Amino acid sequence: MTADTVTDVFEEHRPVLTGVAYRMLGRVADAEDVVQEAWLRWSAETRDDVREPRAYLVRVTTRLAIDRLRHVQARREAYVGPWLPEPVVTHFGATVPDTAEHATLADSVSLAVLVVLESLSPLERAVFVLREAFGFPYAEIAATLDRSESAVRQLAGRARRHVEEGRPRFDVDPAERRDVTERFLAAASGGDLDALLSLLAPDVRLVGDSGGKAKAPLRVVQSADKVGRFLFSVAKQPIAQSEFRFLELNGGPALLVLSGGVPDAVFQLDVVDGLVQCVYIVRNPDKIAALAP
């Protein structure tokens, strides 16, 4: 391959590589570092011996992501308060017209699923991401991980069962999630505690991620009464030059709160049967700075 061809081939597959790395690591900077390292390895040789560039690049990226994940897991153990993935802007609704494919992509990158993936081993997570999110054949995953196909199928089964047990059952209608999110904002900002409580499931959970760099609960808040009263008290504390924007993050509607044009918080809701099952709040400035308009 010529230098231009090497670059063109890599750029063609960059979206898939970034998607794999982000789902493996849950943080944009870590994913970008992994993809950059994959590029350095890819561009170091002429690559005339590579018959299937996509498979080769995914293999390199996945292995690098596994190594990176093993290192960052220790770092996350010292994280202040609950850890949530870094929210990323998605546009599945505009780029993926097929409903089934949209649902698969959105689900695989949702905050709820990424949180569950944190409890998997690096190999289980890699198998789940490659199989469930991107549909790679078991034989190709086995070659990527240097494992037998039967071992990969066992890893896939364990990972799938664990994820199914840990994630909530989503409403598939984005319009309903958006409607509930809008009513949630109206109730909270309007000081209507009864309206807010009516939107919450009895066992609703609130997970706040600040990394110790902003105000947020250091433990998960659970039950409609506790979550509702916490949100009600937060809403009574004014934010300077506040502005609210709706956008699609991690495959679903989310609310971005700006203070003086700077991202202050991200709210996203898991909605089941019209009720909020979980409230995610990301306030760590390192994770939301990139969402600035």
Q: What is the succession of H and E elements?
A: HHHHHHHHHHHEEHEEEEH
Give the name of the CATH architecture of the domain at 174-291. Answer: Roll
Strand order of the biggest β-sheet: 2-1-6-5-4-3
Estimate what percentage of residues fall within beta strands. 15-25%
Globally, the shape reads: elongated
Q: Return the structural class.
A: alpha+beta
What are the SSEs and their pairings?
Blueprint: H1 3-25, H2 28-43, H3 53-77, H4 92-95, H5 99-108, H6 111-117, H7 122-133, H8 138-145, H9 149-166, H10 174-189, H11 193-198, E1 200-209, E2 221-222, H12 224-235, E3 242-249, E4 252-259, E5 262-272, E6 275-282, H13 285-288
Parallel strand pairs: 1-6
Antiparallel strand pairs: 1-2, 3-4, 4-5, 5-6
Helix pairs in contact: 1-2, 1-3, 2-3, 3-8, 7-9, 8-9
Compact description:
With 293 residues, the protein is of the alpha+beta class. Helices cover 55% and strands 16% of the residues.
Characterization of this structure:
The chain has about 290 residues and is of the alpha+beta class. Among the domains are: about 1-80, Orthogonal Bundle (Rna Polymerase Sigma Factor, Chain: A), CATH 1.10.1740; about 175-290, Nuclear Transport Factor 2, Chain: A (Roll), CATH 3.10.450.50. The chain contains 13 helices and six strands. It has helices at about 5-25, 30-45, 55-75, 90-95, 100-110, 110-115, 120-135, 140-145, 150-165, 175-190, 195-200, 225-235, 285-290, and strands spanning about 200-210, 220, 240-250, 250-260, 260-270, 275-280. The chain has a six-stranded mixed beta sheet with strand order 2-1-6-5-4-3. Helix 1 (about 5-25) runs antiparallel to helix 2 and helix 2 packs antiparallel against helix 3.
